[in-house]
Amino acid sequence: MQSISSTQSPIGIIGGSGLYQLDGIENVTDMTVETPFGNPSDTIKSGTLHGRHVHFLPRHGHGHTIAPHEINHRANIYALKSLGVQWIVCVTAVGSLKQEYAPRHIVLPSQYFDRTSQRSQHTFFADGIVAHVGFSDPTNAKLRELIQAACEAEGATCHNGGTYVGMDGPAFSTRAESESYRHLGFDVIGMTNLPEAKLAREAEIALATIACITDYDCWKTDIAPVSVQTVIGHLQANAELAKRLLERVIPNIPSTATEPEHHALDHAIVTQRSFWPDQTLDKLGPILSRFR
């Protein structure tokens, strides 16, 4: 039986399409977490993986019952933060916007471009407390390096860095949109990961993403355009690879939270402390706990 060190920061894992459960977790407890933003996507599987305390949450719910535009990202990140999570590794399916980024390759996004329309739901700050977090470097380089090393150990093709363009969905892109993103130099496209990165930064959580390529979107006209059928063809292989990568990465994540992201709110909150409404402060309890 594995033991958990009380001095180590818990690790959150968000599973995407094809990854609805994580093998190897011991001492599993199903945790139902209520948040002031509503319910998370599913119960959270809490347990031990290679001696580290982990919390696993499938963003689409077990059985993939939640559409991309229906995901309650605030509840998901709030729930993980309330459980003490200070590191998050996301797994997500993406389409490739580059010839050399093929299906079953891994991309570790270092930048995002926001094409979503629900941005008011992608922040915790409102109702009397205003904050503007720095987001110039939205993912954690140390986590990306650990994932890259894991990819090399698995013999997987990994592209460390690149721009993820986030769209609403649930429909896939038009060819005009896909070509536009290519001309702008973007690398992959997805529907779910960008809000997670924004909210994790506000919650002072270091995050990196394992973006698993399933298709070439619809810009590549010499093959069939992206469809559920083409995506499903690669989902299982990508999910199995992601599980192996997580097995390698989790034990090597730092045990302490000393990255810049862990102090992202130090100079981000504009509203003077004396003006903070008590109701909002209570609502953002886990987010603002060190400012009380």
Report on this model:
The chain is 24% helix and 21% strand. It has 292 residues and is α/β, with parallel strands linked by helices. The protein has a single domain, classed as Nucleoside phosphorylase domain (Rossmann fold, 3-Layer(aba) Sandwich), CATH 3.40.50. Strands 1, 2, 3, 4, 5, 6, 7, 8, 9, 10 and 11 form an eleven-stranded mixed β-sheet that branches. Helix 1 crosses helix 4 and helix 2 (141-154) packs across helix 5 (228-249). The chain is globular, with a radius of gyration of 18 Å. Mean pLDDT is 94; it is low at 1-6.
Please summarize what this structure is.
The protein is of the alpha/beta class and 292 residues long. The chain has helices at residues 73-82, 141-154, 175-183, 193-202, 228-249, 278-283, and strands at 11-15, 26-31, 44-49, 52-58, 87-96, 106-108, 111-114, 158-160, 163-166, 188-190, 206-215.
